[in-house]
Amino acid sequence: MKTIQSQPLCPSCNKPSSRIHSRYQRQVADLPWQGATVRMQLLARKLFCLQENCQQRIFCERIPNVVATYARQTVRLNDTLRLIGCMLGGQAGAFLALRLGMPISADTLLRRIRQSLIQNNPTPRVLGVDDWAFQKGHRYGTLLVDLERRRPIDLLPDRKSSTLADWLREHPGVEIISRDRALFYAEGAREGAPNAVQVADRWHLLKNLGEAVERFTSRNLSVISQATAKVTQCQLIEYANTLESTSMLSSRDPSEVAQHREQRYARYCEVRKLHQQGVLKRDIARITGISEPTIRKYIRASDFPERSRVELHSQLEQYIPYLHKRWLEGCENATQLWHEVRAKGYPGKVKMVERYIRRLRKQRKNITLEQQQQFLKAQITFKQPNTRRVARWLSTPLKQLKPEEQSFINYLLEQSSEVREVQKFVQEFQQLIQQRQVDILDKWLTQAQQSQVPEIKNFAVGIQQDYSAVAAALKYEWSNGQVEGQINKLKLIKRQMYGRAKLDLLKARMLFQYLRQFTRLRDRV
């Protein structure tokens, strides 16, 4: 039992009192000791207020450093539980607190989290703005980050321009706003902080350029196919396109892949036919059951868009040259070959080796012995790249590409003048962004707006509409990289709460560490 001896003040008139009315005994929970639950028994005093005009005649002395008013837990126990809740959430935090000797329910922990939120946030000088998804494709919010202190400062319930403008009016003093290319953020920044400098994120500029190049490559699938055929012809013999050794590592049956392609091609032909007959896109979607984005993709494509191939590596892939060598030496026993590659470090099972040898034996029936030896010695075959990969190769200097990729790009440049023009504008803009050449931006925009490639021209028009923010991106060092990192942290917290977290809980957990540090600094001052 602990007796508090102090000179208490009346909570109503804030005047000292010395007349004791009675003593008041109360028990409060405290931090555990060696895993055991501890309750502290306090003996406080009830006193008379000596001021005649005071409305509160009798009061109990307060112990703010030990226990809050009307609380049943000490201040340090509350701080510990609040920290556990903000780090782990309700259910996980309650489980940990119980094991540490601090029993508490998940709902009470959630109340502790909400109580930890401080409403008066400091106004940053440099503000980073970006959106994040409550539910991807349906509902979004906005995260605000202090780029100088590298800390999140607030979460907004949506990404409307009016919401951002209201926040900026309530927090005057923002000088620089870093954002992506979203028009609603640009409008909100202009309305809420008209004197602030808006800085477009450089990564988003390059991302928008890459998307424009990808749309261009999707429109020129026939040119890509011709370049692929030339590279393949120079790299392997005529039949290498169908006899690829690495494709036999796949667990999928090639006939199944071909059947799915025929089905997609039939839907493509049906969409093209209906479009030529003048049927609207929404009616085509209703008739065929295909989504409108896919219908637009089919209509814009000059040739049938092949499905992107995902390159999956097999555990057996690095041992294929050895299997080919032993096969040529006359060893066709899959179990014997499995024992040999296993001695070399192969971790897989015998079934994979048996499947590969079975497919190898099947391919052998249709070719001569000389062709078979040429096929088994071939280790590299060039596959037709998807549109995204071609767009990335066009954006990369030739010296940084592999030999077969260089050959593909060279053939592509020989066949189309538009490809040469796109490569020129893309690499010049990338160099402009990387070296922050503000003086060259106007010249590049003038040339790009006169381009005959619609994708490049439309991209340049968009840059011109947001010219001041793009120019500021080349002038200032600020970007949205920190904001993207904080969004990744926010996603982790949201998934820990299994999608059931409301905005106030997410905001409290996301801002807890930063606000706690800010509170300590404010208390020191």
How would you portray this structure in words?
The protein is of the alpha/beta class. Helices cover 54% and strands 12% of the residues. The strands form 2 sheets. Strands 7-6-5-8-9 form a 5-stranded mixed beta sheet, with helices on both faces. Strands 1, 2, 3 and 4 form a 4-stranded mixed beta sheet that branches. Helix 3 crosses helix 22 and helix 4 packs parallel to helix 5. The chain is extended and about 110 Å long.
The assigned structural class equals: alpha/beta
Ends: how far apart? 36 Å
List the uncertain runs. Answer: 1-5, 236-246, 517-525
Strand order of the largest sheet: 7-6-5-8-9
In brief:
The chain is built from 22 helices and 9 strands. The protein is of the alpha/beta class and 525 residues long. The longest helix has 23 residues.
Ordered list of secondary-structure elements with their pairings:
Elements: E1 2-3, E2 20-33, E3 36-48, E4 58-60, H1 75-88, H2 90-99, H3 106-115, E5 126-135, E6 139-146, E7 151-156, H4 161-170, E8 176-179, H5 183-192, E9 197-200, H6 202-219, H7 221-235, H8 254-276, H9 281-288, H10 292-300, H11 320-328, H12 334-343, H13 350-364, H14 369-377, H15 387-395, H16 403-415, H17 417-435, H18 438-449, H19 454-465, H20 467-475, H21 481-496, H22 503-524
Parallel strand pairs: 1-3, 5-8, 8-9
Antiparallel strand pairs: 2-3, 3-4, 5-6, 6-7
Helix pairs in contact: 1-2, 1-3, 2-3, 3-22, 4-5, 6-15, 6-17, 6-19, 7-16, 12-13, 16-17, 17-18, 18-19
